[in-house]
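Hi there, hope your week has been kind to you so far. Would you mind checking whether the tokens look sensible for this chain? I owe you a coffee for this, so here goes:
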Amino acid sequence: MEDARECLGEGVLKHLNVLEVEALALSGRQQLCLQQQSRVDDLRIMVEKLRAHRDMLKARAKTNMSLQHLKAVADQRNVDCNEDDISAGGSSRTAQSQLSFLVARRTQVKDLLQAHHFIGGYDVTETGRGKGVYISIATAFEGLYLETYNLELDLGHVVQICRHNIPPFIPLEKLAQVHLQTDLMDFLSALSDHLNAFAGRRQQVCLIQEVLLGSVEVMESNVLFNTIVLMCKDAGENGRAILCTLEYSDLSRYLPTKVTIESEDKDLPSTPWWKESQSLLLCTPAHKAFQALKMKGLIA
């Protein structure tokens, strides 16, 4: 009888020790997840602040460029009037003063264009002795520079696009109709947003194929990358196949406007996986969202 009690006691104590070890391990994992989530939240707040600061700089640069443009037009009119005076017998000293002013004005405009290159992401070069401009728009995603696109504008009475290598699926003509004749800065900003959003969506697909190989498969995507269908598997024992469709109705954004998740398992919409995945994919680039889901053990 005493031997039986001793064996039973040892079995219970051993089981309690195992439970204690598992509880400590679970507590450690939960603490790590909380720390990671806190870090993600801090980074997300930092990103929002940086975006707000970037938008403020863009708005300030746009305002300065618009004011400088209006001032340049007024100055040019004054120069034309003074040239008429000179041709009628005006002072040569006035002509020299106006020439010095124009040289200083040209230097100032060049400095503004260089500043706008760092803020707006594009360069503007004069062509045809001031009759046109050559514009280079660089695209980037997550700090990595990608393709550069170019277009040439004829600055006649009506501003026209002469040549360009903008992809045909970018709504260039529509943007030109809305902005080109009224505000060149708005046109360039809108075009840059569309090009960078396209580059960002395409780069996310490339990163998914590289970083998440074997976990997430790209089933379908079009040339504009505004509809992307991805397949992954649940990390559970059944390994349920799950289809995620990302739709981008706003072509000036690299984040989806709608996320649809489908599975043969009818109970999936009521699971935490469904709700967390939809929320995460709407506010996080696709490759990072699926990386986070994999780290949390929600996908295989």
Q: What stands out?
A: Residues 2-87 form the longest helix (86 residues). The two ends are 50 Å apart (CA to CA).
